[in-house]
Amino acid sequence: MGLAGAAGAGFVAVWRDERDGIDGIYRARLDPAGERLGPDEPIHGSDPDHLHDEASVAITPAGALGMAWVADVGRGRELRLRIVTEEGEDLGELALGPALAATPELGPQLTVGGDGGFALSTYQGTRALLRRFGPDRTPRGPVLPMGGATRPALGPPWLAQSEAGDLLAAWNTEGGIALDLRTASGERRPVPVEPGQVRDVLADPEGGWYVLVQTQEQLLLRHRDARGDLDRGDVLVGRGFYPVADMAAWSEGVAVVTEELARDDDRRTRLGPIALHRLTRAGELPPDHVPQQVLAEGSRGATAPRVAASGDRLMVAWDELRGVNQDVYYRILGGAAGAGRVRRLNADVSSSHQRQGHVATTAGGDRAIAVWLDDRSGRSRAYARRLGTDGGFVGDEIALPAPPPPPPGSQETADAAGGPGRARARNRVRRGG
Asked: Do the bridges between strand 302-310 and strand 292-293 make them parallel or antiparallel, or are there none, so unpaired?
């Protein structure tokens, strides 16, 4: 599942959907206020009978969409790309050649390019690859192998882009983390391999790059300048092993949310706490820093945390097993609301198995939404929720797969045409399914 937002353009979500007996990828648009913009649409046009998975999405400030995913077409797994222009013209599906299965938490990575187009990172065999496309879907130069044969990829790269259009890719390789920095003009700047395993990368709004690194016993934040050179000492974020961590830039600096593995009394590994770490604009932890625990008291542990920022507020979403169901939860931290209470995203209905919770804001930080996958109806469906600045929800949840249109002559058709029910809310999910 993928989610992206841009100031003035709103949001776009992509997800794997099993409707009609096939595994396809669908997309849905929401405006900057989080209201639906038209029906959801499939993006897997050429191979409707095959498995499609691992979708990634990006949206430009002008509203153009880039969507990448992996299609299992019988003859192997292929990488696909589809671009929709800011005028809404669908430029069609583009096959980009073989692709490997991605790790569960990271598929093809897509971001907005410096010229209003898109940049895509993935890996093939043991090579990390970078591709650039203009807003008209035209390739911007050849496929660029990153790192060369001396830096084989053990998985797909993380990708970040600066406001100037420079791109930093990071991936795990033998002996540490390989990095590849490309300027907006396409110039490659060599960056040496550094020890550890990458957890996330982020463009520093103040200039340069952040790389979140897991060593054997520590989680470290490293900073590189715009040329890719280390320019600060490592910042110790936490001691222990953190299988998942996520970063976001916010009004006060950088926020890092971590998932920690812990051990019970029998020395068995279990899911541990989720914590939020706030760093200053200089990328430093305050002297009195204490990680803020995100989960409710008594929680047995959670997984897959995601963080997004909206002004001085930080939103965290995660997966957590309570009772028999794994649900997706959300909490707002900071701002006038302080630390809001933990809320279950599908609060409109009884608990149901959920997974892959994401939060996103527009680039301007004026709105926030969360999306997730939910199995309440017996198959996976995507839902969205608008998040309030006070830690609550705005309105009801939104089922991203739009309901079928009412039959001709029905009361709902009359309402839509201007009848008595015209003011009723759209996109609401029926209680209980």
From this structure: unpaired
Q: Give the model confidence (pLDDT) of 242-254 as tens digits.
A: 888 999 998 889 9
* Sheet of 24-30, strand order: 2-6, 10-17, 24-30, 41-42
β-strands 343-344, 325-334 pairing? antiparallel
DSSP assignment of 34-72 equals S-B-S--EE---S-TTSEEEEEEEEE-TT--EEEEEEEE
Total residue count of the chain as it appears in this document: 433
Instruction: Of 4-8, 227-231, 332-336, 357-361, give the lowest mean pLDDT range.
Output: 357-361
Contact 262, 270 (CB under 8 A): yes
Angstrom distance (rounded) from CA 412 to CA 432: 21
- Nearest-angstrom CA–CA distance, 6 and 364: 7
Using CA atoms, how far apart are residues 53 and 12, in angstroms rounded to an integer?
17
- Say which residues have a Cβ less than 8 Å from residue 8's Cβ, sequence separation at least 6: 32, 61, 63, 362, 364
Residue located via tokens 């996109």: 427
Question: Which DSSP symbol is given to 21?
Answer: G
CA dist 292 to 90, 148, 235, 333, Å?
A: 44, 41, 17, 9
Q: How far is CA 7 from the centre of its chain?
A: 16
Q: What is the pLDDT of residues 338-368, one digit of tens each?
A: 678 888 888 887 776 666 667 776 655 667 8
